[in-house]
Structures are given as C-alpha cells and as structure tokens.
Design a protein that fits this description.
This protein has 442 residues and is α/β, with parallel strands linked by helices. The protein is built from 17 helices and 15 strands.
C-alpha cells in the first residue's frame, strides 16, 4: 500500500481520485477530516438524507467554506453514485437495505464501492461480491474498521507461509450484555441517559456494540472474506489479553479454548467476574499463527514473539483502530490499483436474530441494537438449514409465533413482505448458496 507517490502524481496532473460519500455520520465525518490534508483525493459529492447536516459535519471537522462551496450536497444517493465525476463510492449509512441498494447502483454505474456498511455486507455481501465481479468493479471492506484490518493480518500471515489458527478482534463483553436494551445500555458504559444525549450518542448503535451483534457481524464478514470458520454455536468471547492470544486461542486438544482451527473469535477485555483483563485488546485486532516447522518455531523464540508453551503458536496484533481516519487506504486501493482491502469471497458466516427475552405473538422486532433481539453468529450452512432470520431484516416485522429468550428467530416466525427489494435479494442469495451447500454435501 504505497500510495503517496501516486497521489502526488495525481495531484500534479490535476487528476484526483474522485469520491462520492453516502452518509456523513461519525465514520463519514472522520474520513472527511482527512480529505484537506490528502493531495490527489477529492470529494465530488456528499449524499445524506439531511444535506444541511452534512454541511455542518464538514464545518465540524475543519473544512473551509471554500471547500464546502466547491462540493455538491444532495439527498439522492443513487444520483450521486451515477455522477460522471465519481470514481469511488463510500457507503457509510449503516442501513442494510440502503447499503444493498447503493451497492447495486454502483455496480450498474461501473463504480468501485467501499462498504463501511458491514450490516449490508453480511446480509447480502456474498451475492453482491459476485455481482461486483461481473460488473468489473471493486467491492471492498473499509480499512480502519476492524474487519478489514483483521483481513490485512490474515493476508500477511498466509503470504508469509503461516497457517492461520484464529483471527478476530477484542471487545468489552459479559454474558449479561446480550440482554442489554437501549434503555439499559448507558448503565454498562457508566453514563447517564442525559450525558449520552448531550454527547449525541445513539443508544441503539452503542447497544449493538455491547450486546454482541456488532461483533457477530464483523466476525461473519471476516469469515466470509478470509475462508475462516465461525464457531458452531456462536462466539465464545474468551477473556484474553495481548500476551495470552497464542495460549488461549489454540485448539482445545492442545490446551486452548478454540473449537476449530482456522476460526474467527472475539476476545473479551473483561474477566467473567467483571475484572479487567491485563493488556486487553478491546480496540484492536489479532491473528494467531502456527509455525510450519521447527526452524520457524525457533525463530519465534529468537525474535521475542509471544508464544504458547509449545513455542509453535504465536500472534500478531494491532492494539487500536482509527475507523474513518484510515479509510483513505480503501479508497486509494480501489481507485489507484483496483484492489479491495478485504472482500467477501463466499458465504461462511451469518448473523441471526436471537430473542433477548421471551417474545409474544404480535410483537414487532426492533432490529440491531434494539430491545427485542441480538445478532448471533452461526455457520451459514446451519443458518440456511434452520431458516434463520438475518439480523439485518429483523426490524419492523411482526411475530407469528412466541419466541423463548435465547432462541433464534426464523423466517417462519415472522410476517414479511416477499416483494420487498432487500428481502428478494437476501432470498435469492439464500437459494443460490443452499444449492451450493447441497451439492458440496453430495
């Protein structure tokens, strides 16, 4: 990723990489803050449901009035995607149906797209990736977000000849968090509702980080991009610090807690009794690797790698991520060399709506980060076999059957509109991969 010289050449030739940003929220704002100091990169258009709020976001991150005046602000994302002066689209809405719609609009317009919207990627990414390839465009994860950073570590490990034993990220986790709601979430963050509101913090969004949904989505995205397996019955969230990754995340037969070799997993920054983990990885990402031979294992020791007792397992990690401040890397990788910073290659992991409490007939699900369901990571084949309802479509649908706390919701349990565009895309994807799984089993 040596882009700076190419950017300088683009700037000198007055041929910048031209971007359409869809959604000027927190992630988008962080990206916008880097634009004035990145020669050779320009924002042609910003699409947001509230264009005036997008302008205000630009002022907040330090844009000059001249730069704001030179940028188009619109509320029609599809029109922005199709504009002639756009090379790369950034989808940062966080809304699954919008993400699917915008991705397909980008393919139709022949534009590369960086999907900050991991919710949309997990909902329909395996199909969207196929469509992107047919359209000859890049469909990419967003560098700076944890899935793309994890993919980078996996790529490094495999390119160096190491077997990837486990990969993932850290987070704050306790089992009780699965039942957290927008009304209780601030208790777990040590804030009052008034303090959170004054800071502009969205309770559903922060609750999705806490209740396990966001972790499940990000691990599904990594599994789908890196040919890694989800655990068979959801993430275990073992407490683990940076120095203990190779010890904890090795296979169970060898004394670790890993169900499968070649698996995604999230490590907790908290012990189960609430004590903090030493040298936690709450904001970071990791990959656990295995030495392919005795000589490589000896090198691990000689060069101070953090290994397990056997010396054969080690780990590399990045202790932080800067989300939108690092997004340039994805935009430039797509716009300059036509490559993604991580991309879905198959359907291996899925995230299914799971009841937070006993739910009654007639209740309406409120989706990611809400009070009714959280998202549980499952192997895609198991999800399709059970007919699991993806968390990305578990919003605004009414229950036809009662659901016990902890049970996954299925398509059969809800009333849904089969003519809805996003539902049709998802069902099309399920049908395609169901056939592939059946053929593989035969």
């Amino acid at each position: 990723m040596y882009f700076h010289a190419d950017l300088a050449a683009r700037a000198a030739a007055n041929k910048p990489v031209r971007v359409a940003l869809i959604g000027a929220g927190k992630f988008g704002s962080m990206f916008l803050s880097q634009v004035p100091t990145t020669p050779g990169l320009t924002i042609a258009v910003i699409a947001d449901l509230r264009p005036d709020a997008a302008r205000a976001a630009c002022r907040t991150v330090g844009w000059s009035e001249e730069r704001i005046a030179a940028t188009r602000f619109v509320d029609d994302a599809v029109a922005a995607i199709g504009a002639d002066d756009v090379d790369v689209v950034i989808e940062a809405t966080g809304h699954p149906p919008a993400g699917v719609k915008h991705a397909r609009a980008a393919f139709k317009a022949g534009k590369h797209i960086v999907m900050v919207n991991v919710e949309a990627d997990v909902l329909a990414g395996p199909l969207l990736a196929i469509e992107a390839k047919s359209a000859g465009v890049v469909y990419s994860m967003a560098y700076g977000d944890q899935p793309a950073l994890t993919c980078e570590l996996v790529e490094w490990a495999r390119s160096c000849g190491f077997e990837v034993v486990a990969a993932g990220k850290g987070t704050k986790y306790l089992p009780i968090y699965h039942a957290s709601t927008p009304d209780t979430v601030w208790d777990h963050y040590g804030l009052t509702a008034e303090q959170a509101k004054a800071a502009g913090m969205n309770s559903k969004m922060f609750n999705s980080f806490l209740d396990g949904t966001k972790s499940a989505l990000e691990m599904a995205a990594i599994a789908n991009a890196c040919e890694l397996s989800p655990p068979t019955d959801g993430l275990a969230f073992p407490p683990c610090g940076m120095d203990d990754l190779a010890h904890v995340l090795r296979p169970k037969p060898e004394g670790g807690q890993l169900e499968l070799k070649g698996q995604v997993e999230v490590v907790s920054s908290m012990e189960r009794d609430g004590r903090p983990v030493a040298k936690d990885l709450r904001w970071g990402v990791y990959v656990v690797i295995e030495a392919p031979n005795d000589y490589a294992a000896q090198c691990f020791r000689q060069y101070g790698m953090n290994t397990d007792k056997s010396g054969r397992y080690s780990a590399m990690f990045k202790p932080f991520h800067l989300i939108g401040l690092e997004l340039n890397i994805s935009v430039l990788s797509a716009g300059l060399i036509g490559k993604p910073t991580g991309a879905t290659t198959g359907f291996r992991g899925d995230v299914i709506a799971t009841a937070k409490r006993d739910l009654a007939v007639g209740e309406v699900l409120d989706g990611e980060g809400g009070a009714t369901v959280w998202g549980k990571l499952l192997p895609a084949a198991r999800s399709l076999e059970m007919g699991g309802l993806p968390i990305g479509l578990a919003h605004g649908v009414k229950l036809k059957h009662p659901i016990q706390a902890g049970r996954s919701v299925t398509w059969r349990d809800v009333e849904f509109d089969a003519k809805d565009a996003t539902v049709k895309v998802r069902l099309e994807m399920e049908q395609r991969f169901r056939k592939e799984f059946q053929a593989a089993a035969e």
